[in-house]
Amino acid sequence: VKMAAGQQWFAPAYHLILEVFGDSTVLFFYRPPSHRIIVNGKECINFASFNFLGLLDSERVKLKALSSLKKYGVGTCGPRGFYGTFDVHLELEERLAKFMRTEEAIIYSYGFATIASAIPAYSKRGDIVFVDEAACFSIQKGLQASRSFVKYFKHNDMEDLERLLKEQEIEDQKNPRKAKVIRRFIVVEGLYINTADLCPLPELVKLKYKYKVRIFLEESMSFGVLGEHGRGVTEHFGVNIDDIDLISANMENALASIGGFCCGRSFVIDHQRLSGQGYCFSASLPPMLASAAIEALNIMEEDPGVFRVLRDKCKHVHKALQGTPGLKVAGEPLAPALHLQLENSTGSRTNDLKLLRAIVDYSLERRIALTLARYLDKEERFLPPPSIRVVVTVEQTQEEIEKAAQCIREAAVKILK
Question: Which of 93, 121, 232, 381 has a Cα-to-Cα distance from 306 of 20 to 30 A?
Fold first, then answer.
């Protein structure tokens, strides 16, 4: 192919880009996890990767990232507070704040570090944090780093949470002077990654005002999924976003990028710029990934109908998996990442995992890519039961969903007989 300097040739099916720089032609090759994925040499339908809105396959996002790569280079080589702040970082923070309808937003270069940095930025030794037992591992690490006094309540059990809040209220009355300097937080997920359940946010807000506590809401699984415009669980329930003290989410599930963000009132967010360790001491997000996230936001705002499509697909998958012999579906019909668990455990976690792994392998042979939910068994505070995670995206067709459900049923009948 004859090409002039500065000219591009783009092959979207293969994720190839040829570009001429002077006398040299450079070949870029990249293949992110997409709707169809190559596993052991086989092209499979992807039911394993978190790509809810299918934006990893968006040519607009890819070309925007490439354009940014040519302009800024690969990385910033420094944290935000030194020389790692570029104009696209400020633009992304402004866009996220506007999208979420909050005063301000802050971005982190690693999704896991976002809530793990935000919690210890506010909650210190002597403070009290009330946490759902099903909280994800990044929340657990944030609690550990905070050295606060942690009280776990049963998953989504508001009566158990109120019991703990009442106990703390009685304890505070014994020493009002000490109680004045103790900060109290409730930390929950909007849509739990370990259970695929929604948090009862309206009830949590009532308890917040009744017992004067702050709410931190982790929305990595619900941002870009729930609500008419994808703003998450607050929009889904019609809760005023100002009732939530801090919202965090990663940009790796819906925004086809890397990193995470927190948003809320300006005085809350500004505190993290000096106290959020993942913000202060990590190199900032590569500009090309910030540009990719901005373009993903553009697409989300231009086509809010995509969220309804995703919800319909989630309901379809949830219904299609019902009645699978020997397996039960754990999670809400609106959840984009469901769990398939054994109806009857063997009594051994190792043996349960072997059975589920056999179902995953059987499906893979038939070009359906699934994955087991992974945990650090010795590190988890409350270890979830073994499960196969089934991830829904807008790109999956009705035929592909039915094929995957049928394949899982066949595997269950054969392996769990």
Answer: 93
- Residue 129: phi and psi, rounded to 5, are -125, 125
What's 379's DSSP letter? Answer: T
Instruction: Show the CA angle centred on residue 286, arms to residues 285 and 287, nearest 5°.
Output: 105
Residue given tokens 């970082």 in the structure block: 89
Which stretch of 41-50, 161-170, 218-227, 395-404 has the lowest confidence by average pLDDT?
Answer: 41-50
The first and second tokens of residue 58, run together, are 């968006």
Q: 């807008």: which residue's tokens? A: 394
Structure tokens at 333: 């019909």
- Give the model's confidence band at 36: pLDDT under 50 very low, under 70 low, under 90 confident, else very high: confident
**395: pLDDT strictly greater than 70:** yes
Residues 356 and 363: beta-carbon distance below 8 Å: no
CA dist 132 and 115 (Å) reads: 15
User: How far is 217 from 57, CA to CA, in rounded Å?
Assistant: 29
Label residue 32 by pLDDT band (50, 70, 90): low
At residue 149, the 3 state secondary structure works out as strand
Residue 344 exposed, middle or buried by CB count within 10 Å (0-12, 13-18, 19+): exposed
- Find all residues with CB under 8 Å of 283, minimum gap 6, and list them: 75, 76, 77, 78, 79, 84, 109
- pTM of the entire predicted model: 0.89
- Residue 98 corresponds to which tokens in the numbers above? 């506007």
Architecture per CATH, 73-302: 3-Layer(aba) Sandwich (3.40)
In angstroms, the CA 40 to CA 389 distance is: 20
- Stretch 241-257: mean pLDDT: 95
Structure tokens at 252: 């790796």
Six-digit token pair at 297? Answer: 């936001």
Of all residues in the chain, the percent with pLDDT exceeding 90 is 85
pLDDT the model gives residue 33:
66
Task: Give 317-327 pLDDT, tens digit per residue.
Answer: 999 999 999 99
Token pair 């304890």 in the structure block, residue? 171
Q: Please state which CATH number belongs to domain 305-415.
A: 3.90.1150.10
DSSP conformation class of 171? H
Give the max Cα distance, the chain: 82
